[in-house]
Amino acid sequence: MLKEIIPKDFLSSLNKAKDKILESKYIRILTHYDGDGTSAAIILTTMLERLNIPYHLSFIKDLSEDGFKKRIMEEPYNLTLIADAGSDQLKFLPDIDNIIVLDHHYYEPSESKAININVRDFGFDGTREACGATMAFLLALAVDESNSDLLKFMVAGAIADKQDIGGFRGLNLSITTQYGKSYKLSKKLNLNGNTLLDALTFSTDPFFYDLTGKTDNIREFLRKLELDPSRELVTLNEDECSKLGKALFAGLILQGCETEALRYLETEDFHFEDGFTGKSLSKIIDGNAKIGANGIPVHYFLNEGNLKEQMMLNWKAFETKLIDYAYRSYKEISKENYIQYFYSPGSEMAGAISGILMLYIADQSKPIIGFNAGDSNTLISSRGTRNHVNRGLNLSIIMKEACKKVGGSGGGHDIAAGGVIPRGTEKQFIEIVDGMVAQQMNGKK
Fold first, then answer.
1. Which one, 2, 77, 286, 441, has the greatest CB density within 10 A?
2. Can you give the pTM of this predicted structure?
3. CATH number belonging to the domain at 332-441, selected among 3.10.310.40, 1.25.40.10, 2.30.30.100, 3.40.50.720
């Protein structure tokens, strides 16, 4: 039961949100556009479908004051249910009370009439222990415990937010322990795909330099291991998995990967009744979200049409583009004293590219900044490592303050954050961030 894994005040807040939902005749759902937000959207839409409450789902990218206000004011008189965003944006509309926020990001408390349910306010770490899909799942459970069958989407969202590295912990662990008993959980190589060739070709997390995306190299790599590229991944025996894992581990070491990335080579994964694993589901949802096809997995999992083939094609299209952009961006990284940065070759890809570069390819000693320049604004994605955070890095604070100094806005997590700044201020922004990283990681005040 839900009351066994969260504090009373947390449950009370969820029940308050539940009551507001049950008395509504129509609800606007607004979630962040990424894999976590889209997983949360699947949970919330399914919950409302089961309640027979009409709804309209939208995805939000621009969390600046203007961007947030614009989306809320599209339907100002309807209850808006926001997931994976919103806590830090409520200050922009303090007098609107028909908003429910389910969030896990850092935020500055402000006066607001909305219901703001942020996991951090109840003693949980929103960077490692709970994500947007976690919050959506908890609300769904508060509405009806039978919604526990939506666990796989919570798992997918947490994986999309990298909260599975080293295994689930905190609230995520409590939830999966309580509600995942009927699912098989097993350790395996962190590879997804039918054949060995497919699994390595489209592997972006882990990203194997000079293997990922390069089929000729993969065939030669597997030939030396006496493994057939056409073999189905699930048919490998224990010895073959061990041989493959050791070879891939050695490759990551040669790439200069640190412990955080190395730990991601092997994973403990859930196997669900529809054939998906937590990892494969996460990658598919995230891939569709990143190319703007968020609605495809939502509709598919609502059983609205035969969209599986399109969903899988979208995932492969995203991975193919991401792999190409990662290799290109790696060659064009610029370095400052304490940070490194690049300009994304394509729109909305800077975050995914930053994650690959930081964990698997780029200089591990410096956090990385990815720019995606638009007509008037530049979107920013920043990434660090656990080692950086342990040394004092907090990208949430840096993005918030540095973006503000150049006329923009930002925020997020200590290890990964983003923002938006006026185009043309990138150089000034880099100088500010470089100085702030120096202060944080050198232990200065």
1. 286
2. 0.83
3. 3.10.310.40
Residues carrying CATH 3.10.310.40, the chain: 332-441
**pLDDT more than 90, % of the chain:** 77
Which residue, 210, 300, 320, 303, is CA-closest to 254?
Answer: 210
Name the residue with tokens 């993005």.
Answer: 399
3-state per-residue secondary structure call for 148-214: HHHHHHHHHHHHHCCCCCCCCCHHHHHHHHHHCCCCEEEEEECCCCCEHHHHHHCCECCECCCCCCC
Relative orientation angle of helices 426-441 and 395-405, to the nearest 10 degrees: 140
β-strands 377-383, 416-422 pairing: antiparallel
229-268 pLDDT, tens per residue? 999 988 999 999 999 999 999 999 999 998 888 988 988 8
Encoding tokens for residue 287? 């891939």
Contacts for 327 with CB less than 8 Å, ≥ 6 apart: 213
Are the C-beta atoms of residues 399 and 412 closer than 8 Å to each other? Answer: yes
